[in-house]
Predict the structure.
Amino acid sequence: MTRTVLVTGATGYVGGRLVPRLLDAGFHVRVYARAPRKLQGRDWVGHPELEVVTGELEDTDTLRGALAGCEAAYYLVHSMISAGDDYRSLDQRLARAFASACGEAHVGRIVYLGGLGETGDGLSKHLASRREVERILRNSGAPVTVLRAAMIIGSGSASFEILRYLVERLPVMVTPRWVRTVCQPIAIRNVLGYLVACLDEPRTKDRTLDIGGPEVVTYEEFMRLVAEVRGLPRRVILPVPVLTPRLSSLWIHLVTPLSKSIAMPLAEGLRNPVVCRDDEAERLMPQRLLDVRESIEAAYEHLDAGRVETSWTDAGPIPGDPDWAGGRAFTDRWSIAVRGTPEEVFAAVCRIGGGHGYYAADRLWRLRGWMDRMVGGPGLRRGRRDPERVGYGDALDFWRVVDIDPPRRIALHAEMKVPGEALLEFELRAGGDATDDDARQADDEPTVELVQTARFIPKGLFGLLYWYAVLPLHGVVFRGMLEGIRREAEGGAEGGAPAVKLRGRRAGHDD
């Protein structure tokens, strides 16, 4: 008989990697997700043993139904990214709802991935929140397995991203004293190994187990190892006592892809020593643990190959169409005729961002990204998870995919700091209606009309001023982008149809 487990947080960093491993292990996996569309780009979505249930964690009736018949339920939810400074109270509220539903559904056990660290009053808010969630889940009446991990090393891990960007970008680092704090990092593949193996080890029920790699290092030693693995010159690290967690988070925000709202709780947590109290987890669930160097090498192998399975950028709420309903939006629309199939043209559109750039005016894009970082936005450093594939909810630099219908349409919502709401849409239409006769192709090759629309809903007078200030640059940025997409889709062929602006739409309104 197939064993059923429920996974929450499957659109996040750990959950998105756990689901396929559970499927490979022979489980029937029931994913409980607020926005199932964020799973569309995953290779495992069509698996016959996968079931997706749509619902909010606080909707206990729906959640209770999803938990029915489950041998175990994984709680991999954390509100740090979506709730900002208020994440601690939201964490508690969601944990209570989950615990209540698990108790009523008589779930065989709850599995929770918590944070490693000493107990007591000195815990950071981040680790203290993890402890509070543990306590709430234990009140459910169901057995609970808590696995506590320190820094997880893997491509796309938030903690790893902080340290690798600091190392790669700064040959000399003035750092807080936390660089000399000890930690016991663990590779993401070993975390996933423990999460799966605990279901087959009855002695892990109602236990709290510390999980870590085979080595204890300071963050300074870790960063020096990153430099060695990357082939960089030895980094100069100068710890000073005056850098508070707040100043550290601002510095992390400027240098790394993480925003200060995420960097702040992580920076606070770096002051706590995070070392396993014993090796009980390894004894009960033996596996080969990667050492720190091997873990870093494996992470870079996936980063360099563009095979980042999940990333910290995957988590968080996604703006949807209701945010645009009924508003008056300024629009600027351009189109171009492209020789090629819809699939070829759409693939070229989906390559924008990350290391590929934006096909034109990359200096302007980099300047806009730098300005965004200076005022607290994500800038361009988030990049993208995969250099070719893109799915609903994916981050593309300071854009977020909020709608995708291959090979017809993709919509990007701006998460950069702007005085309003901005959306960039690409639509593919039948080539026969592309533009006037001069823009149509004379040969028999298929032709696609690619329409690009920038929409902006201003907030107040400053929003209006912003729109009219950037409007003159649209001709350079958007026309150049369309021309670049055309060249990419046509394989670099010379010539081709010119970009044609649809008349009567610039600075117009959509109601």
